[in-house]
Amino acid sequence: MTLPIAWAAAREAVFAAGSAAAPGPVPVPLAASDGLTLAAPLVTLTDLPAFPTSSVDGWAARGPAPWRIVGRVLAGNRAEPLDEDGTCVEIATGGMVPRGTTAIVRVEDSTTTDGAVTGEPRRLPDWRRQGEEAAAGEELLPAGIPVTPGVIGLAASCGYDELSCRPAPRAALLVFGDELLTAGTPGAGRVRDALGPSLPSWLRRAGAQVVHERGPVADTLEDHVAALRGAIDAGAQLICTTGGTMHGPVDHLHPALAELGAQYVVNTVAVRPGFPMLVARLPGGQFVAGLPGNPQSTFVALVSLVLPLLAGLSGRPLPTLGTVTLGADVPGRGDFTHLALVTLAGGRALPVAHVGSAMLRGLANSVGFAVIPPGAEGREGTVAQMVPLLDGERS
Description:
It comes from Dactylosporangium salmoneum. It is an enzyme of class 2 (transferase). By secondary structure, this protein is α/β, with parallel strands linked by helices. The chain is about 20% helix and about 30% strand.
């Protein structure tokens, strides 16, 4: 009998395996980089801003008032220097501040008479100095972070046309089970497949590109092997399966992995619910994440093994655990880590109801899993680690 690996050790093992197999960086146009992973630090190609720019509409002036108007600078135009005291140019917001400028006077703080301007500049300068935000060559963002619209905008402002990124891991989903319905109301011994419609969204939110889906896959060894080979042929680097992780009469995942020559990275984890979970590596380098068939257990396996594995394959750090203050007692699970679904109320984490392995109601009302270590109990008022559920933003 295989002894389950500790939950924390399992997370680290699959993350290390994924990191070792992560593909190299590729150049990606800015517009196509959203959701990928930055493969190199984002370093400024120029000062930010590259030249001094006006923050307001007004007058760029040199010396004391009154100032004789000698020109105009609009955004996008090169500014000629102000060489004489007592001169100014009309300037628009975003316009290049001429060399020699000693003050910018807002249009609403100025008066123009016979081609001369008078007015009082504000106490704080109304222009952005060259390099005020960053100096050329300064590191703005580290490698290993997700590319977001904010990152894309910052890169564009620095002069980048493309970014060095880790490509999104390609994932497949195989749902095993003769008992599953894909439409209609459950009954007569058949249950509705809740994982086929939902797991691809979770994988995408974790940064994966879902390239292949199949289910339900019939409960035979031949169909399991054929389904795995189909996912390999589709180019998946990570194949997630649901069900069949035990050793019952219709559990064919382990024999299928043996037939394909797979080696286990993790085989069963000391966590409740969901301990019969696994990650194996195929001879071609693909990973198979075997998730239990009971829905809540599936999602425990997802946050325990799949998310760390995807982080490694993406070139990202191991997902960090948050902390919460428990608002009620949470039982332990003996020698197993207990991942307990919780919601937040008044800044404290409260256990939710309907948390059986086959239930999804509790998951839908939760923000994450409180982590109760082996041999411990979660006591009201104490701080516990928490695995957050993915929200609506891309990871």
